[in-house]
Amino acid sequence: MNVPDKALLQWLQQPSADRGLHFAGAGDGWDFHSYADLAELTLRTAAALRAHGLRTGEVVAVVQRSSPGFTAGLFGAIAAGGTACSIAPPFAFQRADDYEKHVTHLFGTARPTVTLCDQDSLEKVRKITANLGLPEPVLFDAFVDGVSPAQQPFPAAEFALLQFTSGSSGFSRGVRVTGAALRANVTAMRRWLDWSPDLPGIAWLPVHHDMGLIGCLLNIVTTGCDGWMLQPEDFIRSPQRYLRCISEQRVGLAAMPNFGLAYILRRVRAADLDGLRFDSLRSIILGAERIDPTVLEKFAALLEPYGFDRRALLPAYGGAEATLAVTGLPLGEGWTALSPEHSGAASSAGGRIVGCGRPLDGMTVTIVDDEEQSVPDGAVGEIVVNGPSVATSYVGDPGSASGTSIEDGMLRTGDAGFLHDGQLFVVGRLGDGLKMHGRMVFAESLEAQLIERGIPERRVAVLLGNREGTPTATVVLEAPKPEWYDLAGTVLRESLTDTELTAVAVPRTGIAVTSSGKPRRRVMWTALCDGSLGGTAQSL
Asked: Which of 160, 173, 269, 338 could pair with 179 in a Cys bridge, judged by C-beta atoms 3.0 to 4.6 Å apart?
C-alpha cells in the first residue's frame, strides 16, 4: 500500500469533469456536481471573500447543509487564506431555543469575519450575529454570483479549521487545527483505508460534525472519488435508499455511529434487500459513540447473504482535538470484543467492549494512571494521544471542565480505556464514573447494559457522581415504560453498592444531547444537582 500525501487544495489544480459529488434529490434522484464545477465555485468563493475584505487567518463561518455551496464555502475559505468553521444549521436541533443558545456560544467563540448561510439558515443566524455585534451573515448564492474565480488559492493561514467539540461534557469548545494537522489526519485515514479515486464513498452524517466533515466530505473530495451525499433526514426517512445506493453505485466506503447500524436493523428487513449486493462495501468506519457488539453481529447477519464481508466493519476512535481519527481497525482484520472477565482492570466495564483498532500513521496512544505513569497492557487508565494531527490549542479560555486538554502536542483525552495486543479499547469518560471498591464504574457501560437488555438507544442516560457527599446514580428515561424502572434498578445494583439510586422520567426529547446525538451527562448532572433537571423522580 503506497497512498500519497495530498495537499488539501491539490484537487483544485486538475479537477475531474467525470467524478464529483452526487447530492440526494427528490425521490430517488441525485444532483451531480463534478469536481471541475466545484473547483470553479470554490475559487469564486475565495475571490469573493478576498474582495469582501477577508484577511489571512480570519474566520469564515459556513452555516449550510451538505450541498455544493457548503463544499465551496468550506474549501473556498481555506483557499482564500481564511480559517474555515462549520456551524450547524437550524435543522440539527429539535427546539429553536436550544439552537439559539448553542449557536450563540459557537459564534461568540469563533467571532467570524464572514458568515456564509443558505436560505434556510439566514434569518435565524442574522438574529444571533446581531445580538453579538458580529457582521451580518450573507447568503452564499448571492455572495458568489457573478464573481470571477481566483486564478489560484491565496497564501494559506496557519489554521485551516476551527472546529468544535461535541459538547457532551458541557459547552462545545473551539479547537484550532493547522493545515498541516488537517492534511496529516486526512492522509493517515486515506492510508489506513487504502482509499483511491476509483473507490466511491457515501455519507449521511451532518457536515458540522468532525466525522461527517473530515471523515466523509474532506476525505471524499481530496481523494477525488465519487461521493454520494445524503442529508441526515434522508437516511432517517429511508435507510433502504441508502442501501440501494451502496449496491447500485458499487460504493466502497461509508461511516456512521453505532446508532446508524442500529437504525438500519430496526427499519430494514431482508425482503428490502432482494436483488442488492454489498460485496463492494469494504469499509464502514464506526465511531463517535460506544459500539454495541450485538449490533455489529446482527448487522453483519442481515447483509452477509447479499455479499457483505463482516470484516468491513471498522471501529475507530478519535475526537476534535486530534483533528479526527486516532485509531482504526486495519482492513481485513475483523473486529473483536472483550468480555469483563478479560482482566481484573477491565472487569468493571460491564458488557463486552469493542476494540477501536490501532494507532494510525504517526499517532501514538498511551494509557496512564493518576500519576501520569504508563500502565501495563490490559490496565484501565486515561487515554493520552500524541501525533502530527493533534490540534494546536483551544480558542479562548481552555478551561478544564471537560477533562480534555492539549499541551505541547499531547492530548489528554479525559477518556478511560486500555490497550490489549496493541489495540485500543475505550471504556468511557473519566468524569462520568464512580469508583467502587477500587474499580471505576462508567456511565457509558451502564447505558450499554440497559440498551442491551431492552431500553431503546437514545431513550436512556446514566448520570454518576457524588451529590452532597453521597455516591449517586441517576437513570434519566425518556417517556419510559413501567418495566424500565425495575430493569434500571437491577442493572445499577449489579455494579454499584452503597450508592443512592434514582430514576427521572422526562418527556420525549427531554434528554440533553449534543448536535451529534450524544448525551450531555455533565450538563444533566449539574441540572440534577441544582434542581433544574425537571421530570419526575423516584427511588430505585
From this structure: 160
**Which residues sit opposite 470 in a β-bridge?**
467
Provide the CB-side half-sphere exposure for 141 (13 A, CA).
7
What's the chain's Rg over C-alpha atoms?
Answer: 23
Say what angle helices 96-110 and 119-132 make with each other, to 10 degrees.
Answer: 60
Cell of 228: 454520494
CB-CB neighbours of 508 under 10 Å? 9
Write out the three cell numbers for 494: 449489579
Tell me if 56 sits within 8 A of 80, measured CB to CB.
no
Give the long-range contacts of residues 121-124, CB within 8 A, separation 24 or more.
121/63, 121/64, 121/89, 121/90, 124/90, 124/96, 124/99, 124/100
CA angle 84, 52, 50 (to 5 degrees): 60
CB-side neighbour CA atoms (13 Å) of 264: 25
Write out the three cell numbers for 345: 482492570
What backbone phi and psi angles, to 5 degrees, belong to 379? -90, 140
Which ranges of 418-514 would DSSP assign to H, the alpha helix?
443-452, 483-495
What tens digit of pLDDT does each residue of 366-375 get?
998 877 888 8
Cβ atoms of residues 243 and 273 within 8 Å: yes
